[in-house]
Write a structure and sequence with these properties.
Layout (H helix, E strand, L loop, with lengths): L1 H12 L6 H17 L1 H12 L3 H27 L2 E3 L9 E8 L2 E5 L7 H13 L2 E5 L5 H12 L7 E3 L4 H8 L5 E5 L2 H13 L4 E4 L5 E4 L5 H13 L11 E5 L3 H16 L15 H9 L12 E2 L4 E2 L2 E3 L17 E7 L2 H9 L6 E5 L3 H10 L4 E4 L20 E2 L4 H7 L1 E8 L16 H11 L1
Parallel strand pairs: 3-4, 3-6, 4-5, 6-7, 8-9, 8-14, 9-13, 12-13, 14-15
Antiparallel strand pairs: 1-2, 2-17, 7-16, 10-11
Helix pairs in contact: 2-4, 2-5, 3-4, 3-6, 4-5, 5-14, 9-10
Family: Belongs to the aldehyde dehydrogenase family.
Pfam families: Aldedh
Keywords: NAD, Oxidoreductase
Length: 455
């Protein structure tokens, strides 16, 4: 680990990555590799998660290619110094903000979208001019191996390098003198990453998770709400950090909502989702056991079939869940959907605000007052009105959490800014000299106050 970090430090000092054209060339190279390795990517993600080819392309490859194209189109302007206005007390002066790379960055990926969540932050790091070490998740072992081979066989280790391994390997990397850390994963591990970063005062971004609610009020198009919640929840078998973790639906609509949910599960995945080519599997047995354990205190389950050998858990609706149940005590990160009734939207807001701040929130409503109420009164990372998950696809929208769901943002310019130090520069000439600011100060204060009052 020490050797790799040292190699990257030396490469960075040589100044190659400060050249915007160099950065663009590397981004184009990654896009070309995504095309070259496309079939291998499909195979690796199927081996890890039985992820359908369409989902792999839509949620992994397409997002990465879109990000690269966006970076290539805008990088020259983002990387250029930005002139800002000056102030009277420093007249005359010219003032600029220079975005500059930190140096060696470490990107720690996640297993649920093991290609995208390893490479997407790395794209931002590269665009900002850093050298980058990628640590893919060992839990998605086939994709981790593919990412490592794809990177290490095609890039200089001093510029971009991938390292496989477990938590000990990650800790060894964190012990090195890094310049920036980007982590995607659980809140529990995120706290450990932050503790390690604090030892060396290394800046970092934490993209974590949490219980992201969906709310369906009386004004909602109930069929559309059910369809889009069903899609957002069960894509990747519920193993999505921004999937709806639970749903609050107005009590007058709950019965109809549940009926629509059941219909859409069948429409999407057939009568037996275990036979559907469009439904993924759980990542490993530990995660499988944790999710199925959440069903134990449920008095009513719609779906609920599972097969440990196949790591299959059926899309499952929990119509009688409440906050006393274990399923509401932690992020589910699987295909279980608790549905809770409500009568008063203010009560929903109070309850959500009494728990950790969620990464995402989804409101289904045509009532503009309710929309503004939810946006203004509940702190959350980001979300949608009348949809789920889709806000991630807009690169003009920063993506990131708040509180226990993380901090820092990326995607598009937000990612470039996250991996850049904003260096402030004031340029002045030797004239004029303003004696007011220099000692001795006797008599200067009254003039300073007069100038201040005039301004």
């Amino acid at each position: 680990m020490e050797e790799i970090v040292n190699i990257q430090q030396q490469f960075f000092k040589q100044g190659h990555t400060r050249d915007v054209d160099f950065r663009k060339e590397q981004l184009r190279k990654i896009k070309k590799l995504l095309n070259t390795y496309e079939d291998d990517i499909f195979d690796a993600l199927f081996a890890d998660l039985k992820k359908p080819v369409f989902e792999t392309y839509e949620t992994e490859l397409l997002i990465l290619k879109h990000e690269i194209d966006h970076l290539l189109s805008n990088l020259s302007s983002w990387a250029s110094p930005t002139k800002v206005s000056g102030e009277f007390f420093n007249f005359p002066s010219q003032n600029y903000i220079h975005p500059q790379p930190y140096g060696v960055s470490l990107v720690i990926g996640a297993w649920n979208y093991p290609l995208q969540l390893s490479l997407n932050p790395a794209l931002s790091s590269i665009a900002a001019g850093n050298t980058t070490i990628i640590k893919p998740s060992e839990h998605a072992s086939h994709t981790s191996r593919l990412v490592t081979n794809m990177i290490n066989e095609n890039f200089e280790a001093g510029f971009l390098h991938a390292i496989e391994g477990d938590a000990e390997v990650t800790q060894s990397l964190l012990d090195q003198p890094l310049d920036y850390i980007f982590f995607t994963g659980s809140t529990t591990v995120g706290k450990k990453i932050m503790h390690a970063a604090a030892k060396q005062l290394t800046p970092l971004t934490l993209e974590l998770g949490g219980k992201s609610p969906a709310i369906v009020d009386q004004s909602a198009d109930i069929a559309t709400a059910a369809k889009r919640i069903c899609w957002g929840k069960f894509i990747n078998a519920g193993q999505t950090c921004v999937s709806p973790d639970y749903v609050y639906v107005h009590k007058s609509l709950k019965k109809t909502f549940l009926q629509h949910l059941k219909e859409y599960v069948t429409e999407f995945y057939g009568d037996d989702p275990s036979q559907s080519p469009d439904y993924a599997r759980i990542i490993n047995r530990n995660h499988f056991s944790r999710i199925t354990g959440l069903l134990e205190d449920q008095s009513e389950v719609i779906g609920g079939q599972y097969n440990e050998e196949d790591l299959y858990i059926e899309p499952t609706i929990l119509p009688r869940a409440d906050w006393n149940h274990s399923v509401m005590q932690e992020e589910i990160f699987g295909p279980l959907l608790p549905v809770l009734p409500f009568a008063d939207l203010d009560d929903v807001i109070t309850t959500i605000n009494s728990h950790s701040r969620p990464l995402a929130l989804y409101l289904f409503s045509t009532d503009s007052d309710n929309q503004e109420k939810i946006i203004n009164e509940i702190p959350f990372g980001g979300g949608c009105i009348n949809d789920t998950v889709a806000h991630l696809a807009n690169l003009n929208l920063p993506f990131g959490g708040i509180g226990n769901s993380g901090f820092g943002q990326y995607h598009g310019k937000s990612g470039f800014d996250e991996f850049s130090h904003q260096k402030s520069i004031m340029k002045k000439s030797g004239w004029p000299q303003i004696p007011l600011r220099y000692p001795p100060y006797e008599g200067n204060l009254k003039w300073l106050k007069k100038f201040t009052d005039l301004l």
